[in-house]
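Researcher: Here's a chain I'd like modeled. Treat it as a single chain, no partners, no ligands.
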Amino acid sequence: MQIRPFHPDDLPALQKITVDAFDGVSIDQGIERVFGSISGHDWKWRKARHIEDDARREPAGIFVGELDGQIIGYITTWQDREAGIGNIPNVAFLPEYRGQGLGRELIEHALQHFRDCGLSHAKIETLAQNEIGNHLYRSLGFEEVARQIHFVADLQADTDSQSDQ
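Model: Modeled as a single isolated chain. Structure tokens:
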């Protein structure tokens, strides 16, 4: 796999990889299971927008994995230089390239990028049910520091019934 910088025309391919890779491990998918689609958009649409946000925030922090000219995966990063922390919001691969150590390779590339930028720590998040991610991140030296619970409120629900609870 060759790792190269992101180009804006990569965005549709990265979004497709994202939607496929985050099936079963997406907060947005959990929201949809409880509330259905929101504002006419499903979880896939919302998750794909996360990559647009990453590209707007720090396009130079996105690294694309290619094999024989085909995009097979990517990692997005952004830096809080003042805090000394590099963040990894998304990493994903096409299904046929998962489980081959390529995610590890991209994460190691991102960690070296952070070091080269003078950062002292890196942060990555995943859901508890993402067993593969949990194992991989620990094996790369990440330590669990906290757990978070995501709550969502339906703002269109009857407020009287909520106040009775």
